[in-house]
Amino acid sequence: MEKRNVLITGATSGIGEATARLLSEKGFNLILCGRRKDRLEKLKAELSSKTEVITLSFDVRKNEEVLDALSGLTGKWRKIDVLINNAGNAHGLDPIQNGDVADWDAMIDINVKGLLYMSKQVSAWMIEGKSGHIINIGSIAGKEVYPNGNVYCASKFAVDALTRGMRMDLNPYGIKVTSINPGMVETEFSLIRFKGDADRASNVYKGLTPLKGEDIADIILYALSAPAHVVLADITVFPTAQASATIVNRSN
Ligand code: NDP
Ligand code: 8X3
């Protein structure tokens, strides 16, 4: 069977990086994206013995950069079979009255507008080919609001709404749209949220076994392995120690 081309945003760490590693062994060619070029090149060097890999370094917040990067794709790379909209982060965890406007802009621009910019261009190509699969990485924060999560939760609620809307709009063209909504996954996520405060970041996972990027990669592969007539629409996944956005058993 011909290999499928998968484009992963946010492939330089965490969930995206783990997904790149797994899919490199499962019959996919990789288009790896992120801002940190050095990490992209290192991952490309590591995975190129397993599959074909190219890298695109751009900031998803900037539509001109998105369009420029995608327009550089030529030949067979222009056929993107799978788009994984994974790039995203939380910035800060503050009550609304103390929120930092730059943090709010970052979350809305990356998590929502970046996903839109990517999806517009790639879905147009998928429509031409009348096939494709878009996987949006949402969050439990897109299903439940939690204290101080305000704008991050709003950005992930937007991802939830966009996933449902995209599934409707792309339905006539046979394009699948899936959302995966994880609870706590130990990646660089908390380090970014707490602006490099490693102690505060590691406290988030204290007393429990969190999910790993590899756990989400397994679920992505499962969604991509479904037969043509099956779409996994909406998957929520927690570590076993977590029961909701706010209920976590830290007895381990
Ligand atoms: P990481 O911080 O480890 O990875 C985030 C990725 O997003 C990096 O590769 C980063 O690449 C990329 N990224 C961030 N900003 C931009 C930007 N402006 N332009 C391009 N790429 C960008 O976190 P995770 O792996 O945990 O996060 C991946 C997704 O999973 C996010 O959407 C997050 O909201 C979601 N999620 C995470 C959970 C968790 O607990 N960890 C739970 C639920 C959802 P670079 O900096 O090189 O550009
Ligand atoms: C990441 C999970 O609970 O920190 O989306 O919002 S949470």
TrEMBL record:
Coiled-coil stretches noted in the UniProt entry, renumbered to this chain: none
InterPro entries attached to this UniProt entry: NAD(P)-bd_dom_sf (IPR036291), Sc_DH/Rdtase_CS (IPR020904), SDR_fam (IPR002347)
Keywords, alphabetical: Oxidoreductase
Gene3D superfamilies (alphabetical): NAD(P)-binding Rossmann-like Domain
Highest taxon of source: Bacteria
Record-linked Pfam families: adh_short
Family per record: Belongs to the short-chain dehydrogenases/reductases (SDR) family.
Xref: PANTHER family: ALCOHOL DEHYDROGENASE
UniProt-recorded name of the protein: SDR family NAD(P)-dependent oxidoreductase
